[in-house]
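Exercise: predict the fold of this chain.
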Amino acid sequence: MENFFSISEAAKMANMTSETLRHYDRIGLVKASRRDEASKYRYYTKEDIVRLHTIRALQQMDLSLHEIKCILEYDDLQMVVDFLKKAEKTADEKNCRVAI
């Protein structure tokens, strides 16, 4: 299975823990692309790893997992851009208040 990564491999590549990936799976944020029926092991693709990195970047913008899930469900790129602009403005305003 050279195109798939175990949960521990995926977690390491995304700089997260395996438990974080299990949590994301439970809440529907990132589902493993493949799951072995016998062992119940989760397997992730390169695209899943990119999604995990995207989640990490959005978390650094102070977005909640619920907000991130909503963003990642958008089919319209302009909606994503608009949401991110709004989040950036909110983060900037928050930083200005902290600096004062």
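Check your answer against the key: The two ends are 54 Å apart (CA to CA).
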